[in-house]
User: Fold these one by one.
Assistant:
Number 1:
Amino acid sequence: MPVLRLGRWLAAVPMALLALATVYPLLFTANVAMKTRREYILDRFSPADGLHLDNIAAAWSSVGMARYFANSLIVVTASVVVLLLVGSMAGFALSQLRFRGSSALFLGCLAALFIPFQVIMVPLVKVMADTGLIDTYPGLILAYVAQFLPFTVFLMTSHYRTIPADIVHAARIDGNSTYGVYRRIMIPLGAPALLSVGILDALFCWNDVLIALLMMPSPEHRTLMVGVTSLRGQYSDNIPQFASGVLIAAIPVLLIYLFLQRQIADGVTAGSTKG
C-alpha cells in the first residue's frame, strides 16, 4: 500500500508542475492586463492593485478588434464547414469504398501531415497571388482547407474504419446509393468524430498567425490573432493593453477547452480503438 501511494505521488508531482507551467502564462497575462502602465513599469510580476478593465476596452476599440473578431469568425466558420464536408466524404470513400489507388491516396494524406507549412509557403502565396485570391476571404479559407485537410481526412478515415462493413452492406441491400449510405449512415454514426475534429480544426484556424498574415496583408482584413500584434509597434510599449488584446483573443479558445475538453480528447484519439 505505501508503495502504491508513493507511485501515485511520483506521478502526481510532475503532472502538477506541468499543469502549473501551462496555467502560469495565462495567469501572468491576465495579471498584466489588469495593471496600469505605471504599475507594470514599476513591477511587472507583482499582483495588480485592482481590476483595471480600461485596458480591455481600449484594446477592443483602439485598433478595430471588433472587425478582426468578425473576420476570424467568418473565416474559421467557413473553413471548418468545408473541412468537415470534404474530410468526411474523403474519409468515407477511403475507409468503406474499394477503388484503385485508395491506399496510395490515404498514404498521401499521411505524408502531407509531415510537411511543414514553411515548405509550401512561397508556392502557395504565389498561386494565390496569380489567381487574385490574396486579401480575400475565399483565399484564406482555401489556404486553411489545404493546410488542415490531411489531418481531417486522416481522423475521419480512422473513425469510419471502426464502423462494421456489414452496416454499409445492409444499407445497400435496402436500396441506398453511395450518397444515401453517406448521408443516412455515415453522417449520423460519424457525428461524434465530426464534432471532435471540427473543434480541433476551429482551434487550429483560430490560433493561426502565419497563414493569415500572408493571405490577409491589408489591415481591414486581418484576423484577430494578427490584429493583436498591431497593439504593440516599434514606438508603442503599452504592454498592459497588449496583454489585454492577447486575453481577448484567448477567451474563445479557453471557453472551448473548458466546455468541450472531452470532445477534444475524443478527437485526438479518434480511430485509435476498434469497436
Note: The radius of gyration is 23 Å.
Number 2:
Amino acid sequence: MKKLLLAAAVAASFVGSLAYAEDAKPDNEVSFNIGAVSDYRYRGISQTRLDPALQGGADYTHNPTGFYAGTWLSTIKWTKDAGGSGNVEWDIYAGKRGEIVKDISYDVGVLSYVYPSNGLSNVPGFANANTTEIYGQVGYGPIYAKYSHSVTNLFGFVNSKNSGYLDIGANVEFTPGYTLNLHAGHQTVKNNTAYAYTDWKVGVTTEYAGVTFSAAAVATQADSALYVTPQGKFTGKTSIVLSALKSF
C-alpha cells in the first residue's frame, strides 16, 4: 500500500483505509477456466496422440488460510491407445499455499487423476489408470521446485506405487506483458526403470483480449520404443505446443 503524505492525520487514515479496501481480496474466491491446446503434454508426454485437446476447470480459494480445492478435465487418447477405453481425464485436488518466511512460498496438497471407465486393469500388463499423488512445492520469486509422489500405482504401470516426479522451473517476465516459461523435470517409475525419463520446456506466455496465449518447445529423453502409440507415434517427441486459455 502506497504511503501518502497528507496534511492531516485523519485524512491519511481515511485514504489508507480506502486503498486497503481496493487491494483486499475476498475471503472466498471461485474461478473458472476453459481452453484448448494443440497437443496435451503432461510431463513432456502427449496424452492425446500428438493431437489437440479441449480443457476446462474450476477452482476455489479461501484467502485467509490459503486452502484451495479444484477440479479440471481434458480430452485424452492414451487410455485407448494402451488397450483400454475412455477419452477423459478428470483431476480433483486440494491443498494449502502460503509463505514460510518473507518471499519464500510453499504449496502442499493431494491430486487424484481419474480416468472414467479406463478399463486398463483388464488389460494384461497394466494396472488401473487412476492415480493419486501428494506434492510439495517451494518458491522464491519466479523460481520454484516441486516434488510429486504417487501413493497409488502410477498411470497404469503395474507395481509402481511410490514413483516420483521432480519439477524445477521459473516464470520470468522479460518484457512487459510477456513471460518466459522454463521447466525441467524427471519422472521415475517404481519397478519400471526403463520408463524413467527427463523432460524440459522453453515457452512464452502473453495475454490478449482476456485470453492467455502460450507457445512452448517441449522435449523429452523418453525411450521412443516404449512411449509409442499403436499408430507408431512417439509421444515424447520434440514439438512446439500452442495453447489458449480463458479464465473468468
Note: The CA atoms of residues 85 and 118 lie 5 Å apart.
Number 3:
Amino acid sequence: MSGPRVLVVDDDDLMRAGLRAVLSSDDHILVVGEAADGREAVEQTRRVSPDVVLMDVRMPHLDGIGATREIVASGSPARILILTTFEDDDYVFGALSAGASGFLLKRTQPEQLIAAIHTIAAGESLLSPAVTRTVIDRMARQPRPDPVAGRRLRELTPREREVLESVARGHTNAEIAELLGVEESTVKTHVKRILAKLRLRDRVQVVILAYETGLIRPGDAAERRR
C-alpha cells in the first residue's frame, strides 16, 4: 500500500539519520530524500516531488521559513511540517504565515511524529492548541482588521461562513457537524469549498484569515469551548 513520500530537511546529520530511522519504522512512509539546508530543500522538493516536507527552521543559506515560502510560491503540492526545538512566537507565526501545514517540536514522541506525517499527507493541518493560541495572540496585536482580506469573505455563503468561524475556533469536522446539526461529510464539503473560494491551502490559513479579517476575536475560541 502506498503512503506519504517524505523529504527530511535538517542541517544536523545525526538528526536527519534519526528522523529517517523513525519514519522508516512505518511501512507506509517512504523517505524519498534529505536536505541539509533550505536552498537544498527547495531544489530537492522540485526533484523528488514529496508529499510532505519535514522542515527544520534554523539552517544555513536559507532557513526553514524562507524555504517553506519558496516551496509554496512555486506551486508545489508538497505540504510542509515544521519540526524544531524552538517555541518562539516569531518562528511559529512565521512558519504558518509562510504556508506550513503544521508545527511540531523535536521533543515530540516518535509515534506522534509518524501520526503527524499521515495527518499532513491526508490534507489536514496540524494545529495544536498551543499553536492556535500563538496565532490568536499575534493577531490580537494587530491594530485593526485587514479590509482587503475582509472582502474575500463576501464569496462565502452564510453556511460556509459559519463553518469557517468554527474551523478558526479550532473545532474538528465532527464537532462542527454536531454544532450545526449536519453530517460530517457535509462539513468536509463546505471546508473544501471554503479553501477553494478563498484560495487557501489548509485549515491553518483559515485560522489566520479569520483573525486578519476580524471575523472572530481573541477570546471567542475559549468562550465557545466552555
Note: The CA atoms of residues 63 and 111 lie 26 Å apart.
Number 4:
Amino acid sequence: MKALTFDKNSDSFIYKDIPVPRPSDGEILIKVSACGLNPVDAKIRLWKSMIPASAEHWVPGLDIAGEIVEVGDAVNDFSVGDKVLCHGDMLKPHGGFTEYSVQSASTVIKHPDLEAIQAAAIPCAGWTAWRALVDKLDLTHQDSLFIAGGAGGVGSYAIQIANHIGAKQIITTASAPNHDYLYNLGATHVVDYKNSDVIEEVMQITHGLGVSKGLDAVGGDNDILVANLLKFEGEMVELVRTLRPEQYQDAFIKGLSFHQLSLGSGHRNGEAAKQKMICAGLSFTELVASGAITLPSIQKVEFDDVAAHLDQMLQQRTVGKLVMAF
C-alpha cells in the first residue's frame, strides 16, 4: 500500500510502498477515507526520540475516518463494514497518511453522520477543546473565559463550546483579519495581539478583575499571559508545554489552579483514560453532527501533497483545517 512515512535519521517525510498491517488482539484494520493534518504530525521532528529504534515504516497521521475491513481477536463492539472515527496513538506506527491503518478498537467511535473529510477535521482539535473546557475547567454560564489563539483549530472549537455553554464572556486573541471570523463563532471580544497590550485590554473588558477561566492553545510564553489574566481563584488549562507556576504573577496569593491536558495521553494511562477520550469524542462529535458546532473551512489535501503541507504548517499559522482524502 502507498504510505507517507517519517525517517527519523534524515528528519524527512518519505513516500513508500509498504505492506498492509494486520490487526492483533483488540485491534481493527481501517481502510482510510480521510485523515486530518495536525501540528503534532508536523512537529514529529521534536518528539522523534519516542519512536523506537526498531521502527521500519513509521506512518504519522492521527485523525482517521474510514471503514473497518478486518478485526482482530477479542473485538466485540465493531464489525467489518462499520465506519469509524478516531484520534490515534502518536507512539504507534500505523497512522492515517496511508491506505490502511491499524488502531485499537477501544479508542475509536462510530463514524458520525458526516462526510469523511468533515469527520477527520474533528478529533485532535475538537476533542481537546471539549476536554479542556468541560472536563478540566467545568465551564459554566457564570464564567469569563480567555483563549490564547482563537483562530487555530482548538481555539475555534473552544469558542463555540463556550458559546454553546453560555459563558458570559469569551475573550480571545487573533490578528486583525480573523476578528470577524471569531465573532461569528461566538467570541464576545477579540484582541489584536500584534498591535495591542493584551493584558491591558482584557483587564479593561473585565473591569480590572481578570477572567475566571483560561486556555492556552498556542504555547511559547502564552502560559504566562493566560495565568496573569486570571482573577482570584481562577483556573487555566495548558495544552502545549509544561506549566511553570513559579513564573506566574501572584499565583499563590491569588489561589490560582492549573491543569495540563494531552488528548493522546488517553492511549497510555489505562481504561479510565481511554474512556475520558472516547466520552469527549462522542459528546463533541454529537454537537457537530447536530449543527450546534460549525466546522472550520476545510481544505482537501491530495495524498501526494501531504508532506509539503506538513512542512508548511511549521512555517505559518494555519486558519481552517487541512484534511487528506482519497
Note: The chain has a mean pLDDT of 95.
